[in-house]
Amino acid sequence: MAIVGSIVKGFLDLRDQLVSEKNPVESQKEVLQMLLETAKDTDFGKHYKFNEILQSPDQLDAFTQKVPYFDYNKMNTEWWCKIHEGANDVSWPGRPDYFALSSGTTGKTSKRIPVTNEMIKAIKDAGIEQVYALTNFDLPADFFEKDIMMLGSSTALDNVDEHLEGEISGISASKIPAWFRGYYKPGEEIAEIDDWDERVNRIAEKATEWDIGALSGIPSWMELMLKEVIERHKLKNIHELWPNLQVYTSGGVAFSPYEKSFNALLGKPITIIDTYLASEGFIAFQARPETDAMQLVTNGGIYFEFVPFNPKYIDQNGALIKDAPCIPLSEVELNQDYVLIISTVSGAWRYIIGDTIEFTDIERAEIKITGRTKFFLNVVGSQLSVNKMDDAVNHLEDQFSIKIPEYTICAKKIGGEFHHCWYLGTDEQLDEHETAENLDEYLKSANKNYKVARSKALKGVKVTPVPVSIFHDWNAANKKKGGQVKMERVMGEEKFEEWEQFVMENRQS
């Protein structure tokens, strides 16, 4: 009998019964009050008159009126750059001990996002809340005695100008509490290895020594690690080695494009739990099995606002116009895409994180990520968001019984007219013409704006299948393998030219 696991499970069940449900709207009001109070004497707080906002009868409205939107470039140029020059109390009291490096999906240059001790605590607290929520998934007691494989970026952080730098997954893993270290795999020594291929090689070497019950990490890199372990030990699937693997906590990107290829590595079904940990903070996690939506962490270190995702509020670079209307959590609606805006205990204020979300349950504050503002394909009025593209790729997988875990798309001029050019990552045979025709018909039926665009300025659809490895090699060449690295789903024409040249060269090699 799993005695320790039974005790842990019993504690979690008891706590779940004793702790009352939080009110997300009230929690958000308290978070904003705390943020303003804490930061009112910083340079940012003085400049935007936080004291006046605190004295206002409607703090939420006063906050939106006095503080403009900030993207990373604006926040860094006007405020965070002063931290690197040695200033204290810039947009949050003191100086951050960490900076999270994030190139996201939009370029080679890393963003350097402050991570304060308050943010580390907020991430830990959200992680604990997610552990408590496991009681909703009816997992057996022995699950709570198994090892947990967390596959993120290296925990070996760089010391730069009196602070440490690394990706947020590496920063978080480097702060793992002592009581958890016995369960944590691959362990501190392997987790510090910076070279992705070497780290995966060491994981494959040690894999037989572990009894893994849960996996956590970005799907594309998790798949590569599992494939290496399976190949190294000549397995049919990963359950032959880790029979007690029961949970996979996904994050960073939507899991749906990877579902078929990921499940192909398993010997039996497991529970998939989505999370939303960004460089800017722990935003949401799946709290119950009845849905794959995620619950916003409304009582932590982040205050959320929402801009209706309407093309007229987005400029050609995917940024918000300054007068775009914004609403608090209390005013959101179902079936509406929103641009997510956050203010945090790391000193990000009305910060455009770049993601779009949709509410699936307002009372529970549950959301789904629907795409990226810069990955909204609307060059000729097609209005395709990433979730619509994901749905189309999932449709192709079902239609042709294949796996397509990666893809990218560009609205490209061919012979003076726009075409949607898709590159589909698959290791199986695919008829380009038939696939393009099927994809086109699906999108016409699923998206009325796309159908209209196809009758006017969007003249055709082109599909090019390429091996999945080329997508991984592209990421490695442009950024770095593993960690938080994600594939750009939509490219501009200039970037797409680089991509097509890369594909041609790597196909020939």
UniProtKB/TrEMBL annotation:
<dbReference type="Pfam" id="PF23571">
    <property type="entry name" value="GH3_M"/>
</dbReference>
<dbReference type="InterPro" id="IPR055378">
    <property type="entry name" value="GH3_C"/>
</dbReference>
<feature type="domain" description="GH3 middle">
    <location>
        <begin position="298"/>
        <end position="362"/>
    </location>
</feature>
<dbReference type="Pfam" id="PF03321">
    <property type="entry name" value="GH3"/>
</dbReference>
<dbReference type="GO" id="GO:0016881">
    <property type="term" value="F:acid-amino acid ligase activity"/>
</dbReference>
<dbReference type="InterPro" id="IPR055377">
    <property type="entry name" value="GH3_M"/>
</dbReference>
<feature type="domain" description="GH3 C-terminal">
    <location>
        <begin position="390"/>
        <end position="494"/>
    </location>
</feature>
<dbReference type="Pfam" id="PF23572">
    <property type="entry name" value="GH3_C"/>
</dbReference>
<dbReference type="InterPro" id="IPR004993">
    <property type="entry name" value="GH3"/>
</dbReference>
<protein>
    <recommendedName>
        <fullName>GH3 auxin-responsive promoter</fullName>
    </recommendedName>
</protein>
<dbReference type="GO" id="GO:0005737">
    <property type="term" value="C:cytoplasm"/>
</dbReference>
